[in-house]
Input
Amino acid sequence: MQDVPQFVVARLQEKPVAGSHPDPDLLTAFVEQSLLGGERARVMEHLAACGDCRNVIALAVPVTEIEVSPAGLGRFRSGWLSLPFLRWGALAAGIAVVIGAGVLQFSRSNQQGMVTSSHVQQAVAPPSGLNQAPSMQTPAPQTQTLMRKKELLASNFQILSAQKRATPASRDGQLPGRTGGGTAIGGGVFPIGSVPGASGHETAFASDLQSPAASPNPNSATGQPMNTPSSSEMVEVQAEAGAIAQNQIAQNQAEPPLNDRNVTNLTGFGVVKAKDPVPDQAASNSTAASQPAAFAAAPMAQSVMVRSLPRWSVSASGVLQRSFDGGSTWENVNPILNTASVGNRGAMQSANAADAAGVGQANKTGNPVASPNPAPLFRAVAAAGPEVWAGGAGSVLYHSSDGGIRWSLLIPSAAGTVPTGDIVSIQFSDPLHGKISTSTAELWTTSDAGQTWQKQP
Amino acid sequence: MSATKPIAVSVQSAVSELLAELQARGECEKIGLSREAFATILCDVAIKYLPAEPSHSEARTFLLTLRVEELALARACAAGHNAAWDIFLTRYREKLYQSALRIAREDSAARDLADTLYAELYGTATREGQRVSKLSSFTGRGSLEGWLRTVLAQEFVNRYRRTRRLVSLEEEGEEGSQFAAPETESVQSPDSRLESATDSALASLSSEERMVLAAYFLDGRTLAEIARMLGVHESTVSRKVDKLAKSLRKKILSHMMQQGMARRQAEEALDVDVRDLRLDIRRSLTQEAPRAPFSQKRQKPVEARTQVDPGAVEPLREP
Output
């Protein structure tokens, strides 16, 4: 990282503060990407000159880290202390698993393809202590039997894929991007090339692991930081909760990461777990799209999946994003622009896009969310194949059946009430049956793809 | 508030048009906020942020971006409705303390911070018998949770800013600027050309670029933190910083050369650590010391140096 000359820094320091400070509402909206072009530009101008406000924003951003349990703030420290042990223990376990899988993987790779590996992946997950939500991995019963039988196979498979990916990790323990290993593995261990199922998987985790202290869940719930990795905090959390954070880290590392705080132990453990999302998708895709027995078709299906079905994520600031290339590049998705059933809102905001397009400051980061169309703040996304559900603040729930091209806004309601708070997790076991939970601890279910909902007591 | 500022017709109509929908979303009945009160709140918020004469569609769009449910809740709490306050406590009380802990990073400071804010939210101060709650300033532009974090952060920054690392940078800056005082030719002119070159280079940057620069080099934020602040990928920030550092140097050098400096001279001026300038002065002063009479003129630079670096004065005193 190149430095700027000392003098420049000093000069930057001396610049006078611009005007009056934005009120907390504007600062919050800035962080949450809710400000429209001109307003955002004005706040940005102020921030360029005002260190205090920059500090405020830096402190106020939502970050995934250990959530302190309500029981006592004192546990905060002990949570941190116990981490290193757990972290290394988990790493050792992961590596052991990884090493065992190597040989077996090669022998199996060509025949079985993704489906098998995915199933065995899932079999491995429970032993590793994950409480995986049933929704995203409900393969047919015969497949589950197959799963259990091939548990060892799974672990082997994981190991090899991890190895493959671990090798190119030349950057201080950072996971390689897609250029890393995994491609050599027949049938495709798609390095981080997971698909919508991944995010849904994690959101499922979020709700399941609500209670324990030092769990990263509420943070997963507040918005998976898929693309703005706060890796150091993530790592510290991982050991406690296991795979969730791992998945996130692994997916985070899909972009060429340049973390200041290098996490050296990510390589082994994180990579191992990175496999999880992929098999989930494979499993759900295979069950949804084709019969589980279609092993031969699986590898093909997989490659087709990666090309045409994006991987979904919700950023830390609540932006819905998808990646068609396994996580290397992400595009923001604003369902409002493509919503069929919310007529006024969609039309009006499209009109305003045209109006304000020229006004807003050119955003060099290329983040389209700074555009005038205020997308809702998303906190959870679940996807199975082309079916995508995204929900967030104000209990807005969008559904797409075509991988995110067209959306419809759903308002869960039962007996005249609607969900309160934000949607923090979405789980769909199949396109018809799903449940959402909110930040106010409500649970709503549907069995007809969201047309009618029932609120669980 | 509606008495002091005339409400634009477009705002009024937009509010009344959307009132039913927003009221339902905000669950106003549940928390005891009347229709009229809510309408007034919406108008006030719209007026606060919209330009003087907004179009109807602008007003509509704006109103739809608001977090109406949280706005209703906050204002109902501010008005003292107990049902609303119960809900607020259930949802936000723990988050308040947790956020305070994350910000203050230390138990007792965090509790203090949270308690102070809690009292302000509840409204311990009274004005004309009315409880004044900070929640009445919440406008629903951002989430209530985020707003609480921001307010906590502001309080924290105000209280503890003296201990932040920013201070050391201020000191460094002061050290550097001190050197304008000693009148040594070799230091002065590059300074002014360097200054103007730097100023124009910085001015040519966008506000986002300057913000990133300041956050990274002045505040010492990590790339991850800056990425979160801006809502972009960390790699984006990293690339940006790199690009900026390179282009700044180029711009400043070219500006200086335009002002007549030779390239090498410009590079030297730019790369010299401001603190190193002191060495030149010390040397030149040391040489002068035996010759120059004991006079005000000599004392001035000595004094200036004393402020900055007491250690450097000693060799001057000896002769």
